[in-house]
Design a protein that fits this description.
mainly alpha, 434 Repressor (Amino-terminal Domain), globular
Length: 282
């Protein structure tokens, strides 16, 4: 990268930018006027044929900023189910000295476990990696942090994926106890995530009335925090439980409400799914 690295890499800004971003953004990065995201940094490194750690010798960005960018990119890609992309990031960062502290290594192991299941379908290895991540807890098994509670949620989801719904429910109940014992809760969405997972898995076990209770509790939190986060999913799950209990008219009310929420969120896939469910009721 000629202007930033003393002419070691003979490539123009336009060539670097092609397929990644604008030439203007590359110029701003070189001048130190813009901090690139982890995603852009990876793409630049790949185009230049470099290990991403090469940039650390030249970067003025604080290490913590880079770590935060990587963690953001990993979480974003997990939400988008881009597991191969996450796998590539983790493979690189596992060698990065910045990620060797227990806290950051735990983050990588957690997501490596998720990717191992969804890419390789290896549930035993995935669970082993998740447990290895939990073993890096700095507070011990008696007092988990918010992240460790989220790891428990991921473990529960994998149990459910292989049909172990009762074990999933037991894991989530354990996570709820840890959450209740936290003196300071920074992420208000964790409890909503746990309640939604519990509601789903209880439905799988045909415990529809219990599932409805968790849906109602999660929905109240969404309203309390003025957040649409999982509100549509909780509303749909509530309707699904009512449908299974034979309360079709009430179920349609919740399905219609969930459909409106997903329309506002431009979630066309869920809107289509609800339309399909409602067609069975009409």
């Amino acid at each position: 990268w000629e202007t930033s690295f003393g002419g070691k890499l003979k490539i123009t800004q336009e060539e670097i930018a092609s397929g990644i971003c604008t030439q203007g953004l590359i110029s701003r990065i070189e001048k130190g006027e813009h901090i690139p995201s982890a995603d852009i940094l990876y793409k630049i490194a790949k185009k230049l044929g470099l290990d991403v750690n090469y940039f650390f010798h030249y970067a003025e960005t604080p290490s913590l900023t880079y770590i935060e960018e990587v963690m953001y990119q990993v979480r974003k890609s997990i939400r988008e189910r881009s597991y191969h992309e996450v796998e590539e990031i983790i493979k690189i960062e596992m060698k990065n000295p910045l990620f060797q502290t227990p806290t950051f290594k735990q983050f990588l192991l957690w997501h490596k476990g998720i990717c191992t299941y969804y890419i390789q379908a290896d549930i035993e290895k995935a669970m082993s990696l998740m447990q290895e991540a939990l073993n890096l807890s700095e507070t011990g098994n008696n007092a988990y942090s918010e992240r460790e509670i989220e790891i428990l949620n991921s473990i529960a989801i994998l149990h459910s994926e292989v049909g172990q719904h009762k074990r999933a429910i037991e894991t989530l109940e354990k996570a709820m106890v840890h959450l209740e014992n936290l003196s300071c809760k920074k992420d208000v969405h964790i409890e909503i995530r746990l309640l939604y997972s519990l509601a789903k898995f209880l439905s799988f076990e045909e415990a529809y009335a219990d599932s409805i209770q968790h849906c109602e509790r999660g929905s109240k939190l969404c309203l309390q925090y003025e957040s649409f986060y999982l509100y549509g999913e909780l509303t749909f799950q509530h309707g699904y439980n009512l449908m299974k209990l034979g309360q079709k008219k009430e179920a349609i009310v919740y399905f219609c409400k969930a459909r409106s929420i997903f329309q506002l969120q431009n979630n066309s896939d869920f809107v289509s799914y609800i339309d399909e469910e409602m067609s069975y009721l009409s």
